[in-house]
Design goal:
five-stranded mixed β-sheet, 3 domains, Rossmann fold, four-stranded parallel β-sheet, 13 strands
């Protein structure tokens, strides 16, 4: 189902003479690792991280170093920040091996029925190789596919530049991949409709309804947070998300507005961690922007990302005028 490039990985291990290898993968891919690990175990000790892995920004180099790993294999993502790794790391995108011919035709037909003419084509890393096939299907249906030249249509975690750069050239977007994480991220950053061609369900679906609900929740969080007095500003210590400067700038602005601020630090920003700080009324996460928008939250204590925090600060300033 997925191509883990096992021979490439084995070649890297042997060429470097690695004795211990640390493997990271998203939870959804861990179940398919048995054969991959069995092959590598012929050359080295393989340690599989049981922690969740949310992207190329979510590196576990420190834990890998604790066990004396010579190399990290990061599966399911691409490099996010140049030079962020402390240990030699290879990235295996793990493309999803699937026949998308019928799905591409379905998507093209449905988008044509809806009256769209120019369609931006996007995909996550597991499905980026299918952008060309979907573009061809759109052309066959009389539509004009548009693909960002810089990224080839790749949406990488919270990076949606491949959509934003071509937004003015298209009537709608077609995202190839499963789940809601990536297409919702695109929908939140552009003002055009985003549709999902899902190879796992073999269906085309829109994002308008989930987008409407998400925006409603986010504006509620911003307005509720603006009313509170005591804030926790969180510095996330994952290598690709660390931003002490951003946290301190936000803290300074809030303090200048008469708010009480506690600077917090950690790599786990789940609800159970925040629950241990009951004296804080609102939280601001300066790491991945999707931590705030995607996590299950205490309805009485809003959690904002950095961009939302600045919107809230502007609202607080306006209210004081």
């Amino acid at each position: 189902m997925y191509d883990f490039e096992v021979e490439r990985a084995a070649g890297e291990v042997t060429s470097r003479g690695a004795k211990r290898v640390f493997v990271q993968a998203p939870d959804g891919l861990k179940q398919f690792l048995a054969e991959f690990v069995s092959r590598l175990s012929q050359f080295c000790e393989v340690y599989i991280s049981i922690n969740p892995c949310y992207g190329g920004c979510d590196l576990e180099d420190d834990r890998a170093a604790m066990i004396g790993a010579d190399m990290v294999i990061h599966i399911g993502h691409k490099k996010f920040i140049e030079g962020a790794e402390k240990i030699h790391t290879i990235y295996l995108p793990a493309p999803h091996l699937v026949d998308v011919k019928d799905l591409a035709s379905l998507a093209a037909s449905e988008l044509k029925k809806r009256g769209f003419r120019r369609v931006g084509v996007l995909a996550n890393v597991q499905h980026i190789e299918y952008v060309g096939e979907f573009a061809s299907a759109l052309e066959a249906a009389g539509l004009v596919p548009v693909v960002d030249r810089q990224t080839g249509g790749l949406v990488l975690g919270c990076r949606t530049g491949g959509a934003k750069r071509i937004e003015g050239e298209v009537d709608a977007f077609l995202f190839i991949g499963g789940g809601e994480f990536h297409p919702l991220g695109v929908a939140m950053d552009v003002e055009k409709e985003v549709f999902v061609a899902d190879p796992y369900r073999n269906e085309l679906r829109g994002t308008a309804e989930i987008m409407k609900k998400t925006l409603s929740r986010r504006w509620w969080a911003i307005m509720e947070a603006a009313k509170t007095k005591r804030f926790g500003v969180i510095v996330v210590t994952k290598p690709g998300q660390l931003s002490v400067r951003s946290a301190e700038k936000i803290a300074a602005e809030l303090r200048a507005a008469g708010k009480e601020v506690h600077l917090l630090v950690g790599d786990d920003v789940g609800p159970e961690r925040l629950a241990s700080l009951p004296f804080i009324e609102s939280f601001i996460v300066t790491g991945c922007p999707r931590i705030a928008t995607d996590s299950q939250q205490d309805p009485n204590r809003p959690v904002l990302n950095e961009a939302e925090a600045w919107k809230m600060i502007e609202i607080i300033k306006q209210a004081k005028k």
